[in-house]
Amino acid sequence: MQLEIDVMLDYEFAEPADVLLQVAVAQMPDQRLIGDNLVVSSPEKLRPVTGEDAIGQRTWAMGRGTFHATYSAIVEIERPPVVLDGLAAAHARDLPGEVVPYLMPSRFIEADRFEAFVASRFGDVEGGPKIAAMLDWMAGEMAYVPGSSHGETSAAATFVQREGVCRDYAHLLAGFARAAGIPARLVGAYAPRVTPPDFHAVVEVWLSDAWHLVDPTGMADAPEIVRIVTGRDATDIAFMTIFGTAEMKAQSVSVRRTG
Asked: Per residue of the chain (259 residues), what is the pLDDT tens digit?
C-alpha cells in the first residue's frame, strides 16, 4: 500500500521557545520511505536526533513569533495483517532488555491499577487471544468522543469515563496489556481512515518475540499504519512538544491512499 502524507502546523509564540517535532515517517523494513520533506520557519538551524528505541527522527527547532511547519511524505507499506490468534506471551524473565520498560507503569499508564480487573475479566485466555479479548471489551464498552479528554487524561481516568480519543484508547489498551504481563508501547502514527483526520496513536504489543501493531479504536489496520515514533506513553510520541507556550492558529493532517 502506498500513502501520501501532508502536514501543516501554524503556531504563534509570544516568547522564544525550543520545539521538539515528531512528524517525520520512520524508515523501517516494513514501511519504505520513497521521499519526504520537512520545512520549518525556525530562526535556528534544525537539529535531528534519533527517536526512542532508535525508531524515527525527532527534530529540534525554535519557535519565535510566527512558527510555520510543513511536512510531506510518500511511503510504501509492506506489512501483513496482524493475526493475534496463536501469538504467545513470554515470561517476564525471558524478555529482551530493551522490551522490559514497556511492562512498567508510566506517567499516563497506571498499569498496576488494572491488575485485578485484567485478571478477573481476561484471565481465562493468554497471549494474542488475551489482547483480542481486550480489544473486544473496548469495542463494546468505550465510546470515541472528540473533546472528551485533555492532555493530562490518564488510562485510569479513561477507564472510569469509558470515552476518549485515540490517545486514550491507546493508553487504556497498553495499561491492560502491561497489567497482564504483556509489554506494550505507544506508537505515533499516520493512517488514512482516521476520523477526524489527525495524528493517530496506536499500540504495539510484544508477542512471539516481536512487536505487533494494533489499533484499539478500530480505525486502522496494521497494513495501513505508518509509524512516526514509539514510546512509553503520549509524552514520548507527541507530534510537537513546546518548552514554553504558544497559540495554535491552524493545523491539518492529510493521509491519502495512492496505490
From this structure: 999 999 999 999 999 999 999 999 999 999 999 999 999 999 999 999 999 999 999 999 999 999 999 999 999 999 999 999 999 999 999 999 999 999 999 999 999 999 999 999 999 999 999 999 999 999 999 999 999 999 999 999 999 999 999 999 999 999 999 999 999 999 999 999 999 999 999 999 999 999 999 999 999 999 999 999 999 999 999 999 999 999 999 999 999 999 7
Would you tell me how many other CB atoms lie within 10 Å of the CB of residue 228? Answer: 24
Grid cell at residue 102: 514497556
End-to-end CA distance of the chain: give it in Å, rounded.
6
- Cα distance between residue 43 and residue 193, in whole Å: 35
Q: At what angle do helices 127-141 and 166-179 cross, to 10 degrees?
A: 140
Domains in the chain, start-ordered, CATH in brackets? 2-78+239-257 (2.60.40.2250), 92-237 (3.10.620.30)
Read off the amino acid at residue 191.
A
